Fold each of these.
Amino acid sequence: SSELTQDPAVSVALGQTVRITCQGDNLRNYYASWYQQKAGQAPVVVIYGKNKRPSGIPDRFSGSSSGNTASLTITGAQAEDEADYYCNSRDSSGNHRVFGGGTKVTVL
Amino acid sequence: QVQLVESGGGVVQPGRSLRLSCAASGFTFSSYGMHWVRQAPGKGLEWVAVISYAGSNTYYADSVKGRFTISRDNSKNTLYLQMNSLRAEDTAVYYCAIDENYYGSLDVWGQGTTVTVSS
């Protein structure tokens, strides 16, 4: 299967830690990348490769992967982290891309 | 700075065509593959198509294959998406994004252009 599965929503208390997961068979062979999308804005990549953060992304964002599951962890969540988060990876052919359904993160 | 600016969106009737453009600046456009990704109202992201840096390789989502064509003009630093036989379900915000080929990520995104397919 080339699908990526994410939980639809998760909530976290301000300053606490939240982990968002993404499951898919192709994650055994390809890196996942993670995108943050705030309301009315374009997506922004927050994690790619083996836990790499683009310049300007706070170090409270981290990524990991095991087997068919990739995870995005926000350690010490801030109010500004409230957003939709999407995982993405290559499909089984390696040529196409596929997105997970997205996880809405609410910071309480 | 790296910038991607989409244009060409609008309201179009079902069955008609539309061409989107993505103007790139601030990086060596001809060295990077490029993607189109769309987002229907209130829905998640859907990958649409990718083109290699030289334009020799293109790949499409099953939902648009045979109707959409991705292309590029490296002399103009511009990416295109030709959309034919449009359907109501093609209504979405369309984003272009830079491909990071080694890790497979989409590094920089434009702000998007809105396509509405309606009679």
Amino acid sequence: GENVEQHPSTLSVQEGDSAVIKCTYSDSASNYFPWYKQELGKRPQLIIDIRSNVGEKKDQRIAVTLNKTAKHFSLHITETQPEDSAVYFCAREEVFGANNLFFGTGTRLTVIP
Amino acid sequence: DGGITQSPKYLFRKEGQNVTLSCEQNLNHDAMYWYRQDPGQGLRLIYYSQIVNDFQKGDIAEGYSVSREKKESFPLTVTSAQKNPTAFYLCASRYSGYTEAFFGQGTRLTVV
């Protein structure tokens, strides 16, 4: 399909450590890359996004980096806390077309207190 | 609460039956989407609609149908042609491209 590859599928870190989730894509027409967080039993919610005209964006403890040449983007969470435990989805959107969001397969992050 | 509501939260279907999942939004969003969520497979696009009275198939549209008669509503029908319908279904809406998508709370469909 047109989805993105997301790794790892599961990730466990100690509280206070950093977590990194990476996504790769093949469609060079993609230029919008959001990240969604889905806590257990809840709906996905946008936590951060980045457009192709920037290489990095930061919001407190989370940051996203984008390498358009290599076609990959990553989510970085620093100083992890137990409430960061959730499933994280990356997504991409094309410049032209139907404005659809294509999602990755998800990463289940567990922060161990 | 995001302004987008799915119902019911849980739905049980007998084999051979069609069922309809409701999705309503009061956010004045033009675009609406249906995703299917299975463990380890992320969110897969079933159908989407960018405007009233128009919708397009996504990656896994077989066995599903939709309508978009009103801006606020985008119901999904799971037909008997869908061979493996047991899943968690999420509806989403947003203004347009490159904007935040708001999700409903989901409907868990189980075939019994």
